[in-house]
Write a structure and sequence with these properties.
Length: about 220
């Protein structure tokens, strides 16, 4: 009997791949980064209430009590895809979906809390840890995206990671050399290790000891 065709191997989704990223450069792009490896098989990084809490803590936001985690996650996922569609249009030049623009504009209408200064034992600080309602959270993210897209300087510093698997959108720091990777420690090292493997194979050298330079995944 003929052997059945084998399915192509799928990359195992490790805990490292599911780790949240907080290095995209701005709040709305940190939300977009809660989906990893958009260039191949996407990895959900914020799919349950625990991850929602972890993400809010990571971006310095506290939600007011009484919110529904499932409803909040669904709303964030919808905003995330709209934000990705809009942000990626800067990188690849496509026209964003009209419904993405409508959603972001609608969510931005409510006013988030007005920032205030207060005196603390450490000196003058803002009240950045004020608890937000879900509506205020959505408005804060939507407005951050609008501010980003309205700033020609910051918009020119938006890039997609050169890794075809990762393609994370990030905001490069001003000045200096333009970054090619979302993170040199992650995708940059991965590319360097892959290049090293190719050179070694072409030279006919043994592949031993390459594990030492094997990078962490995106």
């Amino acid at each position: 009997m003929d052997a059945s065709p084998q399915e192509p191997a799928r990359r195992r989704v490790t805990e490292h791949l599911r780790k949240l990223r907080f290095d995209a450069g701005t709040l709305c792009l940190d939300l977009v980064a809660t989906v990893g490896r958009r260039g191949c098989v996407p990895v959900e990084r914020m799919g349950d209430p625990g991850r929602l809490d972890e993400w809010c803590q990571g971006v310095g936001i506290s939600l007011a009590e009484g919110y529904d985690p499932a409803v909040t996650l669904q709303a964030l996922h919808e905003l995330r895809e709209a934000a990705f569609d809009i942000a990626s249009s800067v990188v690849d030049g496509h026209r964003p979906r009209p419904e993405a623009l409508v959603l972001v504009n609608r969510l931005a209408r409510p006013h988030p809390p007005t920032p205030r200064l207060e005196w603390t034992p450490e000196g003058v600080r803002s009240n950045g840890r004020e608890r937000l309602t879900v509506q205020q959270l959505m408005s804060t993210i939507a407005r951050d995206l609008i501010d980003l897209m309205s700033d020609s300087d910051r918009r020119s510093r938006m890039h997609a990671c050169a890794s075809e698997a990762c393609r994370m959108i990030y905001l490069d720091t001003p000045g200096g050399r333009t970054r090619k990777w979302c993170s040199m420690q992650r995708c940059g090292n991965q590319a360097k290790a892959a290049s090293h493997r190719r050179r070694t194979t072409r030279a006919g050298e043994p592949l031993a000891d390459l594990q030492a330079v094997e990078p962490s995944p995106c």
